[in-house]
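Risk register update: the risk of archive-format incompatibility is retired. Evidence:
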Amino acid sequence: MGMMAREITLTKLRSGLIRPWLALADLVYPPACPGCGVSVGAHRGLCPACWSGIRFIERPYCEILGSPFSHDLGAGILSAEAIADPPVFDRLRSAAVHDGIVRDLVLSLKYRDRTDLAPMMAGWMLRASDGMVTACDAIIPVPLHRARLFARKYNQAAELARHLARLSGKPLLPATLLRVKRTSQQVGLGAKARQDNVRGAFAVSEHRAGDVFGRRVVLVDDVYTTGATVAAATRALKKAGAADVTVLTFARVVGHLI
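Archived output:
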């Protein structure tokens, strides 16, 4: 039996062994929409009503900040914000607007132990990355401070990054970027307070500088609000010699369309 035939046989065998257990799991825990709880056909699937409420971020948008435009202004157009105050990262991409069901998914992943949602969310992020994941050398999650990680048990950004790496086949570097300063919660802080809060909060491990030097990296987080956190993290990556940093988030706050 050739190598290919043997791999196909093993795959079928695993599938046959796993399928009954999946069917039993569906009986004990029927698939339900993570947004509203109604029955759906498969786990991690949304019902039509919740799906229709999602505002995916599609072109046209600012090439740097990914801010959605209300109408097409032509290829390569930048927003006024990107021109007046260019970010330290090279570009930002996000899957959806942070409201409604999208906000609920973020909160469920972050605070309600719904790590099972991460594969679905990472799939949307890969699609929204505009080819940047395919072009990158590595994927790096925005880290939590070890004290907060101990309290929360897991890092939601790392969960998204892990599944993004699995889907894309790109290397995941979960221990390269460190959160060296314990910061206050960003929720409720203004833009200036957020910047002050995370200033100097990140650093690249002195033993892992080679992971980012001269490389194109994708920095992963769950939500983009003012950009203070990912800007501080990008500064640490650039200081270590990263050639290009794309920020990729599941959701982003959008005030009004330009």
